[in-house]
Specification:
The protein has two helices and no strands. By secondary structure, the chain is an all-alpha fold. Keywords: Membrane, Transmembrane, Transmembrane helix.
């Protein structure tokens, strides 16, 4: 697997971790920000991974 693709997959997993993070008392006010950042990370790196896949598909044809 390409190292960049592995890094993108790790970033997607980190986005899911931010969404599922339990609310701790001193971070309770920031939970909505963590949720938004997590969703954005998942979307951005998913589209980047799809772009790499499509690009690899068309360069092999």
């Amino acid at each position: 697997m390409n190292h960049v693709a592995a890094l993108f997959l790790a970033c997607i997993l980190a986005g899911f971790a931010l969404i599922k993070m339990p609310v701790v008392s001193f971070l309770a006010g920031l939970s909505s920000i963590f949720h938004v950042v997590g969703v954005l990370a998942i979307l951005v790196f998913s589209f980047a991974l799809l772009y790499l896949g499509v690009k690899a598909l068309f360069t092999k044809l």
